[in-house]
Amino acid sequence: MASETKAQRIERIKIEKDGLDVLDDIARYALSGEVTDPDDIDRFKWYGLYTQNKNLQGPQDETLYFMLRVKLEGGCVNREQLSEIGKISKELARGTADLTTRQSIQFHWIKVTDLPQIFARLAAVGLSTIEAAGDCPRNIVCCPVNGTDKDQIDDVRDLVDALNDLYRGNRAFSNLPRKFKVGVSGCSKHCISHEIQDLTFTAVRRQDNTIAFGVSVGGGGASNRRIADHIGYVRRNDVVAIAKSVAKIYRDYGRRDNRAKARLGHLVEEWGVERFVSELQSDSGVTFDSHDAAPFTPYPRRSHFGIFESTKAGYNAIGYAIAGGRIGGERLISLGHILEFYGAEGIVLTTTQNIVVRGVPAEVTEAFTETLEAAFGLDANSSAFEARMLACTGLNFCKFAVSETKNIGIEVVAHLKSRFKGFSEPVSISINGCPNACAHPHIVDLGFVGAIVKRDEEKCKGFDLIVGGHLRGEQSRFAVKTGIKVTSEEVAPLIESLIEEYESSQSRDFGNFLLEKYRYEPTIPTAS
Fold first, then answer.
1. Cβ neighbours of residue 500 closer than 8 Å, sequence gap 6 or more
2. pLDDT per position as a tens digit, 389-423
3. Which domain CATH number covers 211?
4. Spans of the chain, pLDDT less than 50
5. What is the pLDDT of residue 2?
6. Which terminal CB of the chain, N or C, has fewer other CB atoms within 10 Å?
């Protein structure tokens, strides 16, 4: 009998047992200590669990460790939750805690025996890992200053809650062809990158001062690279119906025979936009208002850093960059204490692995910023380099990675900040341990994609360089290959040389400079 393909196996195990039904098995494995069934290991994803790379394990350590993702709805973490997440990190995850591009937090070194305790502790503060991974709707992303930003187009917190309520633990959508990524934006800066989501609702203010929501479908940023199609506008009270119908159509018609062709964008591509919209309108009962897409903020300007006045009188929000998203349990606990001392509400995670502190009383804002800088080196006036530095999990913990990422990202930021103190143009950099592109290398100025590099006939861990990615609605573009390969140690020197060259050029846009350099000079030798 022929062996199963990857797609056949995944579809079989989902039919045999829904991913949501593995929770009792997790408890059983934790209590009994029995060997975990490989099929159940895949189902663990529905509770935010992925097996971890054994790269850092000692030769005598045969423990099966996991990465665990905590899904933070709305990206929000209050002081109590922040403290508990930090304690779990310190006590059960060896101090690890990383911010993700879907406004969640990930632990490493998690053991099955500790999962019941972790789940109970998270639940006690109103948190969960349910459907943080798996073939189901993922965390709904939104603007981190949603509801508190004076410049926002619309406060969409109720829509974010409604969509989370629609999808969370809903067995009608717990077996999709693959993951399903949704966003809702009321942000004037369009910070959630709607162009690479499966489904996004973007608020626009029309000339008559009414609010409508632009609907975009079929975006993707990895092997399924595709700029989402803008398919028209709907009213606010139609958003949930559209979200439900898109998930149904994807569930029923998305490909299940080929994991590489199973995302929503592939279905839109196969059917064509006209047929997809027709099916969507028929299923939802909603008619789209067809207008041209609204103009969008350029990707480098889609951020919320520094101090800005909140819509709540007497309070401020403060945006901070966390290089590579590595924050750690100790810092989370300390941050919770500082928030409590100054009476701040909590933090909100961004889709670029950074944070916004919300609800800081205006009269203590200066003291608060001074304290965070002294305690953690966090500067509210983020540099051009750390503000847009993304890094995936990397070789230390990810089974697919060939190169380390987080530490390199932190080192690159430190080097560039020291070398170019007066440089102010935002430079977007993404460091990825493998071609899966979890840190979105195809939409940034400088994308580093994990690869093996030869130096003096020896194989080294390194990266392929891609350049010139940019998001701006229909003017978006993905990064192009350069043919340049660098070792991990060569990343910072290469970026330094490119910035020096840019500063001495006539160009006024770093992304365009890179495109011109590498598109028209294809024979540039490998960096050394």
1. none
2. 999 999 999 999 999 999 999 999 999 999 998 88
3. 3.30.413.10
4. 1, 520-528
5. 65
6. N
Give per-residue pLDDT as tens, 280-324.
999 999 999 977 667 899 998 899 999 999 999 999 999 999 989
Measure CA of the first residue to CA of the last residue in the chain; give whole Å.
51
pLDDT, tens only, 249-289: 999 999 999 999 999 999 999 999 999 999 999 999 999 99
- CB contact at 8 A, 122 and 70: yes
65: CATH: 3.90.480.20
Give a yes or no: residue 525 inside a domain.
no
Instruction: Please tell me whether residue 400 adopts helix, strand or coil conformation.
Output: coil
Contact by Cβ (8 Å): 180, 136: yes
CA-atom Rg of the chain in angstroms: 23
**Domain containing residue 500:** 387-519
Answer yes or no: is 233 within a domain: yes
Pairing of strands 199-205, 211-217: antiparallel
Amino acid at 184: V
In a domain, 293, yes or no: no
- Spatial distance between the Cα atoms of 498 and 358, rounded to a whole number of angstroms: 36
Counting the structural domains of the chain, the total is 3
Its sign, for the CA torsion 297, 303, 308, 312, is positive
User: What is the total residue count of the chain?
Assistant: 528
Do residues 507 and 431 share a domain?
A: yes
- Give per-residue pLDDT as tens, 193-214: 999 999 999 999 988 889 999 9
DSSP 113: G
For 499, residues 6+ apart whose C-beta sits below 8 A from its C-beta are 416, 420, 423, 427, 510
Neighbours of 403 (CB within 10 A): 25
Does one domain contain both 80 and 199? Answer: no
| pTM for this entry | 0.94
- The last residue of one of the domains, among 108, 124, 140, is 124
The rounded distance, in Å, linking the Cα atoms of 60 and 39 is 25
